[in-house]
Amino acid sequence: MKNLRCAICSEKTRTRLLYRANFDFEKLNEKTFSARRIPDNIHYQLNKCQNCGLIFSSPILAEKKIIRFYQKSKFTYEKEAVYLAQTYLSYLKTFRSNLSPKTKILDIGCGNGFFLSEIYKLGIKNVFGIEPSKEAVSKAAPYLKKNIKIDVLHKNIFPKSHFDIITSFQTLDHVVNPNEFVKIVYRMLKAEGIALFVVHDTNGLSVKLFGEKSPIFDIEHIYLFNKKTLAGIFRKNGFKKIKIFNVNNKYPLIYWLKMTPLPPILKNPLMTILVNLKLAKIPLSLAAGNIGIAAYK
Ligand SMILES: [Zn+2]
């Protein structure tokens, strides 16, 4: 087990216990680490920095163990990924309007390349990805696969000042050392380059409604941010011009239901009803408690 501290403040800041760990360490396996599985509400001990409000898991498993789980994890959100890619692309276009065929883009935690393939369709062929799950990368389109590194982000994975745009969606909350992560992103960006990240919001609706039962309090999440702490971690690691925004996610009704922390005895029949009434696929756009950051080098 490894103890963590607030990633933003000095080591001396006081933390408050938010929720106790609610699982048995012996029972962990790679299924626990598959993104977007039906939430089972297990989490480490959650702590809150009294100074800046950053929420973080501690103690946690050794980082090597966590990475090994991600390497073996399954890619299970193919259907939802189509919707995600459209949402993320609309934000990218908002903050970076001058996309050209020469633009060089990296997506960290790219899964099967669902976002990169949307970019590729725009005629931008310089698209690269980093993803630890072999299985996820095996599902990538053949034209993307050669540009995706099956790995986690580390210092020398790409050269300095290499990319115009670096995106990372729902990944920073999974990272054991977010300072190092953001620092490496800063280093890999060209001057005037932009980083576009999306993470869960600890001040979001799901936390207000469900408290400890919110799906964001999950064993996969190490550091959890709100608007202030998200800006804080980027500022601490070199970024000066920062814009924070609310993310509206557009998903089919069935997916919203799937992610709601209801007991299976209620959820499963409701899911069947949606399918039978042919309502399952109706898209619904909601601010589900995600926030984004556009940070310029
Ligand atoms: Zn703090």
Automatic annotation (TrEMBL):
GO terms of biological process kind: methylation
Gene3D superfamilies: Vaccinia Virus protein VP39
Keywords of the record: Methyltransferase, Transferase
Highest taxon listed in the record's lineage: Bacteria
PANTHER family: METHYLTRANSFERASE TYPE 11, TRANS-ACONITATE 2-METHYLTRANSFERASE-RELATED
Statement: the UniProt record of this protein carries the keyword NADP: no
InterPro entries associated with the record: SAM-dependent_MTases_sf
Species lineage: Bacteria, Candidatus Curtissiibacteriota
Name of the molecule in the record: Methyltransferase type 11
Molecular function as annotated in GO: methyltransferase activity
SUPFAM superfamilies: S-adenosyl-L-methionine-dependent methyltransferases (SSF53335)
CDD domains: AdoMet_MTases
A Pfam family hit: Methyltransf_23
Keyword Ribosomal protein belongs to the record: no
